[in-house]
Write a structure and sequence with these properties.
The chain contains six helices and 21 strands. A 14-stranded antiparallel β-barrel has the order 1-3-4-6-7-8-9-12-13-16-17-18-19-21. By secondary structure, the protein is mainly beta. The chain has helices at 9-15, 33-36, 51-54, 191-201, 204-213, 281-291; strands at residues 65-82, 98-99, 107-117, 122-129, 134-137, 150-165, 170-189, 227-249, 252-259, 263-273, 296-303, 307-315, 320-329, 336-342, 349-352, 358-368, 373-382, 401-411, 416-427, 430-435, 451-470. 52% of the residues are buried. 10% of the residues lie in helices and 49% in strands.
Length: 471
């Protein structure tokens, strides 16, 4: 009998995370509070130092030195209703059929931007922001526990940038992305299903004799529970971003921005815990040895998808300005991913992602209420990279979503201002029926062989606050 299970699934999900603010995948909310107020439609506005993220060429429009620090709080709500999840033996997994408290009450992500005009042509800046992030804590006995029990993903991106203003119409920008990621994952191990398969295959008696010979109680096999697996992985990766800004006149601008793919080799350690499978230590030890599950290193190579954005800005009159953004994300880089368990001789875990490329469309507007207050608003539609319910995993129950945002900029003084933003994200219902194609008795690959079948429902609120100072 062999019990094998994925422990670095989180790395796969990470690879598909979009680096575009408020985009689909494992993105973290928004990387700019002022941009959030227009549903991220203002890539060509270049009104403050956060243009480093949207389009580094926009640095050429900023005077003097500016610093902008903000925080975005993400307030999610999600529920799951099971529709018949099964083990690899095609028997029900059991456990809780519904989940409504597996997302955190609130998660906050900071951002910091600094810009400085060097001379009439050159400008420079630095952005620090959170490109990805997620945290899910399903109940340990939920129906989909063999696919996932918990996941936590943290990241930070350091983005030094420069801009060159060729003339009054043309400006170019370039940035380097220095990206750190850390991921932690937990999952259940289907020991009961594996025991049942061994008994059906006629090898259960040999297992019982081994337990008895070592002084254990074979009867404990009948009530054996799940084992648990956990992993942590981390890595630094490097990429770049480019921007171009064309000013048709003083009221109209067009921009194009590109953010490159980043290669990561997440390395970490897999930890297996069979101590709670039964109350008999001998039984637990024999099962773990039969499963050939020992703590080991784990590794996976991934590459995040690149993005290409086209945006426009037009000042209609003294009060009204309109803007638009279209962002294409190359999620199709995410096909099948091989998870390697280093030094164990066990087969890789093959995760079927097969994500599709996505397009995000956003429209926004500014309204100058008075000399001190500018109001913002925006709407956006974003595609999910998940192709079908058969490829929707519990780690990323993503779906197409509609975003509605409102914001305001309040000038506290000629040198300082506050930005406020509120966003409502409404996701389509997300049915899933993901089957792991490898099962515990297979020898060439690693997996639980489970099918997680149910529907996720999600909506999300984002609340942002930022302070800017010019000097």
């Amino acid at each position: 009998m062999k019990q094998k299970y994925l422990t670095l699934m989180v790395a796969v999900a990470l690879a598909g995370a979009s680096a575009t603010a408020a985009a689909s995948g494992y993105r973290f909310g928004s990387q700019s509070v002022s941009s959030q107020g227009t549903a991220e439609a203002n890539g060509a506005e270049a009104a403050d130092a956060s243009t480093i993220f949207a389009n580094p060429a926009g640095l050429s429009r900023l005077e003097g030195r500016q610093i902008m620090g903000g925080v975005t709080a993400v307030v999610p709500h999600s529920s799951y209703l099971d529709a018949g999840s099964t083990r690899f033996t095609r028997t029900p997994t059991g456990g809780q059929a519904s989940q409504d408290d597996y997302v955190p009450g609130v998660v906050a992500g900071p951002s910091l931007y600094y810009s400085q005009k060097i001379d009439g042509q050159w400008s420079a800046g630095l952005g620090v922001f959170v490109p990805y992030g997620t945290k899910l804590d399903y109940d340990s006995n939920w129906a989909g526990r063999y696919s996932l029990t918990n996941i936590k993903l943290e990241s930070v991106n350091l983005n030094p940038s420069v801009a060159f203003k060729l003339d009054e119409r043309h400006a170019f920008g370039f940035g380097i992305d220095i990206e750190y990621m850390k991921a932690r994952l937990g999952q259940a191990v289907d020991v009961p299903g594996t025991i049942a398969a061994a008994q059906a295959a006629g090898t259960g008696a040999a297992l019982a004799r081994q337990i008895a010979a070592m002084g254990g109680n074979p009867a404990a096999l009948a009530s054996a529970g799940d084992a648990h697996a956990g992993v942590e992985g981390k890595d630094w990766g490097y990429g770049f971003n480019l921007g171009y800004l064309f000013s048709l006149d003083q009221n109209t601008r067009f921009g194009i921005a590109y953010r490159s793919s980043i290669k990561h080799e997440l390395k970490g350690g897999a930890v297996w815990d069979f101590s709670t499978v039964s109350g008999d230590k001998v039984v637990n030890g024999v099962l773990q040895a039969a499963a050939r599950r020992a703590n080991s290193a784990a590794r996976v190579e991934i590459r995040t998808p690149e993005t290409l954005s086209l945006n426009a800005f037009h000042q209609f009159d003294e009060k009204w300005a309109g803007m638009a953004d279209v962002t294409w994300t190359r999620n199709s880089r995410m096909q099948n991913i091989d998870i390697e368990f280093v030094g164990t001789g066990e087969g890789d875990e093959v995760i079927r992602q097969q994500w599709k490329n996505t397009v995000r469309v956003a429209l926004g507007a500014n309204y100058k209420l008075n000399e001190n207050v500018t109001l913002r608003g925006g709407i956006a539609h974003d595609d999910a990279p998940v192709r079908s319910s058969e490829l929707r995993h519990a780690a990323l129950p993503d779906a197409d979503r509609l975003q509605l945002s409102f914001g305001a900029n309040w000038k506290l003084s000629p040198a300082s201002s506050l930005d406020l933003a509120y966003t409502w994200l409404d996701f389509k219902d997300a049915p899933g029926s993901y089957t792991n194609n490898c099962n515990p008795v297979a020898t060439a690959c690693t997996g639980n062989g489970e099918t997680t079948r149910g529907t996720w429902k999600t909506h999300m609120q984002l609340i942002g606050l930022a302070y800017s100072y010019k000097f």
